[in-house]
Amino acid sequence: MKNMIINLSKISREAGKAIMKVRSTGFKVSSKKDNSPVTEADLASNRVIMEELTILYPDIPVLSEEGADIPFSQRQAWKEFFLVDPLDGTKEFIKDNGEFCVCIALMRNNRPVLGVVYAPTSDTLYTGSIETGAFVSRNGKVPEQIHTKPADNDEGLVVVGSRSHPSPELEEYLSTKNVAKLTPAGSAIKFCLVAEGKAHLYPRFNPTMEWDTAAGQAIVEAAGGSMIGLDGELFPYNKENLRNKGFFVTA
Fold it and tell me: Distance between CA 59 and CA 42 in Å, rounded?
């Protein structure tokens, strides 16, 4: 696990460099079949990740947002695979607010067991696995271990929510809680804020895709937190339909 985390960290940083290069030179925005936006940065990052993973781990298949047309009949037999979002937070990238990241997760038996999330604008790298624990490295410095921080009974909740996808369900849910602060944020960075103890709760009611959540979930769980579906069950992966329902991420 440790060697894989080192390798995936290097890959995510290289992918981040590709994203930042596109960001500095300007880019066009196109629409995919589902009308979600895609830019040259998404594609450039994906090329870096796919090339490196293929070289280092030729026997482990890859399911990426920018190559998600692998039929379920093929995927359902996978015992181990990488789940990749080469640019999580494309809308944040287009807005140029810095809240985007590279996400790479290792899946075993359809569970995320290792995650890497890299935010290139702040040069912040989050990694995690149950075997190693969760860590953050800022500006290339030595990684520091991080842990979730559950709220005290008399302490108001610090909640993170989607910046680009607010929902009335979230407002209704939070109206029943003792919320001290609601922080909007983009991409899988929300998972990482819970993982490093800067937030207690990340509730999500709008849909996401599997590659949006896997790496973040691995990091949160490695830091001592949890992620479950709105139904209270384990969050499913490698489904025939890769769209996620809502979930709760808790410290």
Answer: 24
Q: Are residues 101 and 200 in the same domain?
A: no
β-strand 157-162 against 179-185: which pairing, if any? parallel
**pLDDT tens-digit series, residues 209-242:** 999 999 999 999 999 999 999 999 999 999 999 9
CATH of the domain at 216: 3.40.190.80
186 versus 4: the higher-pLDDT residue is: 4
List, as one string, the DSSP characters of 54-82. HHH-TTS-EEEGGG----HHHHTT-SEEE
Backbone angles phi, psi at 80, to 5 degrees: -150, 135
Q: Please state, in angstroms and rounded to a whole number, the distance separating the CA atoms of residues 185 and 237.
A: 24
The closest alpha carbon to 62, from 75, 76, 73, belongs to 75
Q: What span, in angstroms and rounded, lies between the C-alpha atoms of 47 and 67? A: 11
For residue 200, the enclosing domain spans: 157-250
Binding residues: 65, 85, 87-90, 212
SS3 content of the chain, % helix, strand, coil (to 5): 30, 30, 35
In terms of phi and psi (left: phi > 0; alpha: psi -120 to 50; beta: otherwise), the region of 105 is: beta
Chosen domain end from 111, 146, 181: 146
Do the strands 144-146 and 133-138 form a parallel or antiparallel pair, or are they unpaired?
antiparallel
Per the annotation, where are the binding residues for Mg(2+)? 65, 85, 87-88, 212
- Of the chain, the percentage scoring pLDDT greater than 90 comes to 85
Q: Which residues are annotated as a binding site for substrate?
A: 65, 87-90, 212
